[in-house]
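Thread: Newbie trying to understand structure tokens

Hi all, I'm a second-year student working on a class project, and my supervisor (Dr. K.) asked me to get a predicted structure for one chain before our next meeting. I've only ever worked with sequences, so writing a 3D structure as a token string is new to me. If someone could post the tokens and maybe explain what I'm looking at, I'd be very grateful. Here's the chain:
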Amino acid sequence: MLLTKEDIAKRIARELKDGYFVNLGIGIPTLVANYIPEGINVEIQSENGVLGMGPFPFEGEEDADLINAGKQTITTLPGAVFFDSAMSFGMIRGKHVDLTVLGAMEVAENGDIANWKIPGKMVKGMGGAMDLVASAENIIVAMMHVNKAGESKILKKCTLPLTGVGCVKKIVTELAVMEITPKGIKLLERAPGVSVDYIVSATEANLIIEGEIPEMQIN
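---
Reply by user tm_fold:
Sure, no problem. This is what the structure looks like when written as tokens:
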């Protein structure tokens, strides 16, 4: 069973620890806010100047003045605060964020990440991604394992312009949970019903496989 984007977010939410300050990037990462485990209190930060984001609003309850860095409408939790970009990036560059969850176009087996530009396509700029990957101690990538052409996005070496070098710690896709180690990418978990052989065939990078690989726990 291939996981949905929501399932990927649910699995990443299991990585959250009580008291964490968390930055959620654009795309799949923003969904993590909807699946914070019960009993876990975290502060979600958005680089446009919000600390204390909640889940997405229900339809009809959106406030156009409350948005995240991806310009999606959000909710805020009691005690949330708003500030300017200088303060926001001071938090990021000062290493006050415990966990950063980012999307990616490509990740290499040494932890390099490319997530901001496809050559030849118009792009507004790198945004906050460069600061996040340069400053964060713990980066989890939420991404699809293959592109629309069925080609692997987990590579031996990134082909797109890099956002950061050797910074990714863990990857969660619709197929697997993987960890970046000094020896390469280690397969930790597989999506329910998905075989190890299938994951290997969908991965250009070399995977380290040790013993039985358990199925992911989503709920």
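A couple of things are worth pointing out once you decode it. The chain has four helices and 13 strands. Helices lie at 5-13, 85-93, 129-135, 196-201. Feel free to ask follow-ups in this thread.
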